[in-house]
Amino acid sequence: MSDSASEPTPVPRLPAGFIWGASTAAYQIEGADGADGKGVSIWDTFVRRPGAVRDGHTGEVACDHYHRFSEDVALMRRLGLDAYRFSICWPRVLPAGAGRVEPRGLDFYDRLVDALLGAGIEPLPTLFHWDLPQALEDDGGWLNRETACRFGEFAAVAAERLGDRVKRWITLNEPFVHMSFGYGFGIHAPGRTLMLDALPAAHHQLLGHGYAASALRAAVPGAQVLIANNCTPVRLRSDARRDADLTAASAYDTLHNRLFNDPVMLASYPDLSAYGISASSWEGVVRDGDLTVIGQPLDGLGINYYNPTWVTAPADPPSGLPFGLAEPEEPYRRTLSGWPVVPDGLTELLTGLKARYGDALPPVWITENGCSEPAGLQDQARIDYLAAHITAVAEAADHGVDVRGYFTWSLLDNFEWAEGYHQRFGLVEVDFATQLRSPRASFEWYRQLIASQRG
Ligand code: IFM
Q1: Atom of ligand 1 at shortest distance to CA of 417?
Q2: How far does the centroid of ligand 1 lie from the alpha carbon of residue 43, in Å?
Q3: Whose CA is nearest to atom 10 of ligand 1?
Q4: 330 is known as an active-site residue
Q5: What superfamily in CATH does domain 19-253+299-454 come from?
Q6: 318-346 per-position pLDDT tens digit
């Protein structure tokens, strides 16, 4: 923390033309459950499962952004954002996931896009931020290859309506988290506990990314396509047993980072033998030509960064996974959600990507970074967090990483998945009883930062 709450926290200048933004996602803010013909998503179903979400919270109302988006765009304009990253709720547009299009759902995004453009803010939609139509889940969800085809069709529908005004698109948000939390461990929707049998959900999401990229490029001249991967630098403790821990670290890096980065940048999968997968055992999943679709050139890599992961050799008795997770030894400050605050992990991550992928690394966008802090308007801890992480981005840029934008998570307090409304990530506090929006100190700090970086 800086000594005084009023003392401005200095941040180095990012390159000219750098895009300053904020991010949200449909299920976390929109509310308006069932409005205007919206279909059911896997999150609508999951939140009703007893014990799935803390205190039984749901996204039924959330920030009621569906009805209050004008007020929210006015806040963004006040902030001086260059761009706003939001997500499009698939079952609002295609209630059954495929087939009949619901025009009222598209109308909402149409109004939002127009309001953003009217405020001088670039709309940056994400097509999939975890709210899969329940009807598709009933057919196997992302374990079913057909879902990738349906995703490509959804991308085409969205592009046809919005592509005259929206040129930059994100296909998937954090496919690692959706695969592992949703299909592996069951702590997110759809709540399946398949452990390593969840891995086909990685390939099918990536294939969906490829189909969506093709559909966007076919429908939108000059479309720019990104994917938002949440990546983590993998670290070892000082008491690491060299070989066993290094092997575990490499296995974790493969699962969390390379499984989602290699196919989109190198058109190949990393060695997955630590997970019992060989080229022949994945034959039924990965078909000829898939990696060409997935590995088509990317216009940008979105990175969501929160913290490094400390890894050890697997626990005894073995968990079935080729790694164990450890706590850092260093006394890092923790956010309200308990995550260690490690800004230099972001520089390490970005320079590591550059070292690993070289010329195959497209321009990088920080599509999410932020922290949950206690409720209240005086959030110096968030200001310090943002200042340190933006500084880490500037350091990576100084080391030659081509970073084009930074989007903080999040504009508003919102529904934080299994944590319900207990975590607050917003620059703007939301009173969920009254829907009153109150900008925090960090909002004013970010506003000044953006203005000064422009000046
Ligand atoms: O709220 C989430 C977001 O939906 C995806 N990335 C991480 C955020 C904080 O947990």
Answers
A1: 1
A2: 14
A3: 416
A4: no
A5: Glycosidases (3.20.20.80)
A6: 889 999 999 999 999 999 999 999 999 99
